[in-house]
Amino acid sequence: MFRSRAKDEKAQDADKAPVTDSSQPRHPEAPKGRPTPKRTAAQSQRRSVANTSTTRKEAAKRQRAERRTAMERQRQALASGDERYLPARDKGPVRRFARDFVDSRFNIAEFFLPMAVVILALSMVRVASLQNVALLLWLVVIVLIVLDSFVTSFRLKKQLNERFAGENKRGAVAYALMRSLQMRRLRLPKPQVKRGERP
User: Fold this and answer.
1) C-beta of residue 112 within 8 angstroms of C-beta of residue 145
2) Which long-range contacts (CB under 8 A, 24 or more apart) does 72-80 make?
3) Rounded Cα–Cα distance for residues 29 and 145 (Å)
4) pLDDT, tens only, 105-117
5) What's residue 126's pLDDT?
6) How far is CA 10 from the centre of its chain?
7) Which residues of 97-126 are buried (b: 16+ CB within 10 A; e: fewer)?
8) φ, ψ for residue 19 (rounded to 5)?
9) Is pLDDT of 143 > 60?
10) Is the distance from CB of 175 to CB of 168 less than 8 angstroms?
């Protein structure tokens, strides 16, 4: 009765306005297309959101549980090669190919630890000839590892350029060489190809 005609027209326009998707941007002067929630409803909604946040101790406990779950998933992924839960450094087809390339061949660097133990044992014997042999073996092993790493990096670069021409290959060769230094059974993620198998 006491409302102005302009307010009545605005209310009718608001009723006639179509309900729009909230994900689309709305013009600032356009009617919003839905009723404003009552104060009690808005307050109860805010309270329910506030009540979901637990105490600091419970939040820390929940975070620990989530971290434990994530670590368990990551551990299983490292054993199975599941790409979804692998660490960021191991993800992607380029890194997977680099792993398979190294795992499919014999690398001299992977035998470095056993050879180092033998050479150290020889060098500790107080016989001059054996100590000279140990020094010579050190030199031979280092030269062989350098040559093998050079050949591996050259072949891997060539394969990566052929297979992944448009993708980011940064760090893949260094990643493969670091993997080649580890003994096969200690590598993570676990090798998914056999020796001699083409990746």
Assistant:
1) yes
2) 77/189, 78/188, 78/189, 78/190, 79/189, 79/190, 80/190
3) 72
4) 999 999 999 999 9
5) 87
6) 54
7) bbbbbbbbbebbbbebeebeeebeebeeee
8) -75, 125
9) yes
10) no
Residue that wins the pLDDT comparison between 140 and 6: 140
How is residue 2 written in tokens?
Answer: 């006491």
Dihedrals phi, psi of 34, to nearest 5 degrees: -150, 150
| pLDDT category of residue 17 using cuts at 50, 70 and 90 | very low
Find out whether 99 and 170 touch, Cβ atoms under 8 Å.
no
Sequence-ordered strand ranges (E) for 116-167:
none
- Cα three-residue angle 100-94-74, rounded to 5 degrees: 75
Residue reference for tokens 């660490």: 87
